[in-house]
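hey so u asked for the seq, here:
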Amino acid sequence: MKLLGLIGGMSWESTVEYYRVLNQMVKDRLGGWNSAKLLLYSVNFDPVLQFQEKGRWDKLADIFIDIAQRLEAAGCEGVVLCSNTIHKIASAIDKAISIPIIHVVDATAEKIKEQGIDTIGLLGTKFTMEGGFYEQRLGEKHKLNVMTPSKSQREYINSAIYEELAMGDILDTTRGEFLSVINQLKERGAEGIILGCTEIPLLIQEDDVDIPLFNTLTIHLRAAVDFALD
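ran it, C-alpha cells below
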C-alpha cells in the first residue's frame, strides 16, 4: 500500500469525512483490520480563507507547495488535496513535486463520462463556480459542457457553505434552497450535478433528487484508494 499525503483543514468538518471514508474504503477492499497508510497535514483554515477572499492565490500556492514538499520528503507517494477549491492551485503544486496529485476534477470527470453524460451542473464555492479552473479542465480536457447557477444563487451557495456547512450547521431550509437550484439546473438541461464542495454532501443526498449526483468527496477518495492499492 502506498503512503498518501492528505492536505486538509478546509474545513476540518469535511476533512473528518475524508479520513473516515478513506479508511472505510480500504477496509472494505482489504478486509480485516486494514486501514489507510497516510500522513495528514491539516491547515488553519482562517488565514487560508482570507487569502482566498483577497485573491492571493500566489501566496496560497507558496504555502501549499511547501506543505506538499514536506509530505513528499516524509515519504508520501501521492498527494490528496482535501478541498475542491484549493485545486485552483493544483497545477502549481504539481510542478513543484515529483509525486502525483490525485486530481478531484479528473476523477469526477471519468465518473460522469461513464454514465454517458455530456452536460453537467456544478455547485461549489464561488471560487469553484466562478474561478474558471474547474470548468476549464472539465471542458478542455474532458469535453464536458458545464452549467453553473445564476449569480445570486452562486452568492447564496457560497455563503451557505462558509457560514453554515463549514461550521457544522445543517439546516432544512438551506437544503430546500439547494434543491431548488438543482431543479433549475435540470430544467436548463443539466443531466447530472457535481457536488463540487466537500461540505455539500453533508446537506444533499442522492435520495433527495431524481438526477445523478456526483459526490466529489467519495469519487476523489475512490481514486486515491485505487492509486494507493494499485
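The radius of gyration is 17 Å. Residues 104-215 form a domain with the Rossmann fold fold (CATH 3.40.50.1860).
lmk if thats what u needed
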